[in-house]
Design goal:
By secondary structure, the chain is α+β, with helices and mostly antiparallel strands. The chain has 13 helices and 12 strands. The two termini are 28 Å apart.
Length: 387
Amino acid sequence: MHFSFSTVPAAQALSDPELLQAWQALVGQSKSPEAIFQTPGYFEFISVVPNIGNLQALVRVRDNRTQHIVGILPLRTGRRTLCLDLGHRTLLRLRLNTIALLGSIPLLPDEPALLDATIAYLFQSFPDKTSIAMQAVPMRSDFYHYLAHSAYIRNHFGVFIKDGWRSCHTTPLPASFDEYTGQFKAKKRYNLNRQLKLLEKDAGWAQLSRIEKPEQVPELMAAIQSIAPLHIAQAVMDEKKYTALTQQKMALCYVLCCGRNVCAVIIGIRSAHTYHVHNIIYDQQLAAFSPGTTILHLATKDLIDQLQISLIDYGYGNPEHSHQSANTSKLRGHVFLYQKTWANRLLFASYAAFGQTVLLLKKLKDFRAHPLVPLPPAPAPSPANSP
């Protein structure tokens, strides 16, 4: 093996010109749908606003023949929790010590021997961690193909896909807004314009504000607080976090006001050409006028015409306010690579068994409600490799 590995402290990594130059170049070649989480800017952000109990680390990979940096792995180490939920109740929390691979797909050449050596180095360097977490691995990716077919992985580790493969919706954006709306049928275009007019008739003239600067963060916090239910506001309101994100030029949010009142808010972050939507919040009293759909439509125009964004990524789930005819859907998985300890085997087997039980209960409930309707197949999450 002609590669060498070293773990670089966060402060040193962010002040090393050679490393930063190589890092930026590798991010530009990233195959991750969440490459923004692999950037120096995001790494600096989580170093400034860390999660309690988590630490940042960065692994550098050199080619010993050329001395060039050929790989960068930004990591966050700490505890992950798998919750066993029944409805809105959490019955049990399963905790594991893990290494989170930011961006999910390593910034490395696609060489199986190098990937094997990288996995080995990570577990050797963090001996108290027994798993590697990768939050959004595309099912059809070279990296997942490696995880599923590597003899080294099969002999030493288990692979678990939390909640199975799930759909992630994205909206490719063309070069102009006219071209974007041209994808819709005439009725769809009419309805979008009509929704805006009805909203303005009821609530007042609509005005969209883009939030991307530190001095605008208080406005964003006030907008969220004015329309979000308490549990949502508590989950998303963090002025220090959004201030730090705006300082890194990553935060990109929108506020839609009608008259003097806030109607809807989009919370998201941006990379060079992708906008990641995290939340769309709207005034529930205006739900009949589709403020969520309206703010997304107006924001899309701004993303295309002013910011030259070429993709909106909604992440996991089915976006309530998306324009389905313009969407594409791809399968991604929250993948855990774990050491085959008895504790890990029991933890992941328990989570899988609980998931199967919940699905069975849902089927029984649906059957009682609609006994003559055939039940669709619902595959349960399970390890890709048996322990």
